[in-house]
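Before relying on records like the one below, remember that each one covers exactly one chain. Contacts with other chains, cofactors or solvent are not represented anywhere in the record.
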Amino acid sequence: MRSASSASADPRDLFAEYIRVTGLPHLGPEPQGDPVLIGKRLGLLNGSTWIALWSSFFARRYLPGVQLVHAGSDAVQLNFMAAHDRGEPCPPEANVQAFVRYAQDLADLGGVDAVLITCSTMNRAYPAVEHALAGRGCPVLQIDAPMMERAVEQGGPVLVLATHGPTVRSTSQLLAETAGARGRSVERIELSLPEAWSRLAEGDVEGHNRVLAEAIREQCRHRRLGCVVLAQLSMSVFLLSYPEPQREFGLPVWTSAECGFQRVRDVLVGGGRPNGRV
């Protein structure tokens, strides 16, 4: 993994671009954006601190004008990674309770209008977080749920791609639950691509995206697929290399960023529903 000192970017440019994406905390509304979203505040419940950049980037792309408030901890990711390696239930109950506390802080201290769980491995925390905030008038959403709804509605076998081992089971469960809640069954093909995770850890985003693209093409050569879902928010950078996946691969490739933040928009403007318990 490259160290900060070996990175090619000028550190001044790095910090400047980072602040342009994340912004700094402030009490007033965002100075620009979609008029129907300006003044809204979204709590982002992340499974680790590094993914906050992804949350900020894609939230600003799909929710211009919404003020973003982050919560999360690297300790959460380290704990579910360790549990997964030991073959224990994942995510651990301690992680779920941590998410409940973080969500309460977002509502009580941050004054957010909604909370979005951005971590696919931690989607199992949704019922507990929803229950904890039930009396606060603050809807809770799972970033993956709208993507799973699209996959079920699309029909046909669903290729589920993940790059991080602990995510696979949580994502597969959510897809099966989403189908079951609609009285349907869904055929799913699950692939874990640790090579893509390793590329991302080295800062090789293009290499990460190329591994995903090759996996999709390989699967399409061997079977008919209805769609592809990319299981983690980090994988949404795939769209930066392949912005028109339908044209590129001949079938929908959905990301949690695109589907999840679009659902948040519907909820924040009052015309949509949060994902229910599935």
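Strands lie at 41-46, 67-72, 114-117, 140-142, 158-162, 188-192, 227-230, 253-255.
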